[in-house]
Amino acid sequence: MKLIVKKYEFVPAEIHVKAGDTVQFEVTTADVQHGFSIPDLKIDESIQPGRPAVFNHVFDKPGTYKIECSIICGPHHDDMIGKLIVE
User: In which domain, by residue range, is 38 found?
Assistant: First the structure.
């Protein structure tokens, strides 16, 4: 699953995956350094310009999880929120 992180959004802002699936993420930044964090799932990846973060995660528990930027990236950093839905 490819995602783009940029001031002050995640693209796409809402992600749907199936419970039990292993998903490979490839997260890139369109501008500055960001973090891709889903605290309830213990995911926290640093996203550097020019260097995508590639990682896998098994989603074994259905639910809705908040995605946030874990690296302060500017004045609207706290508004940078996405959603992961495990069905």
Answer: 2-86
Domain count, the chain: 1
Chain-centre distance for alpha carbon 47 = 10
- 26-53, pLDDT tens digit by residue? 999 999 999 999 999 999 999 999 999 9
Mean pLDDT over each residue of the chain, to the nearest integer: 95
For residue 43, the domain's CATH number is 2.60.40.420
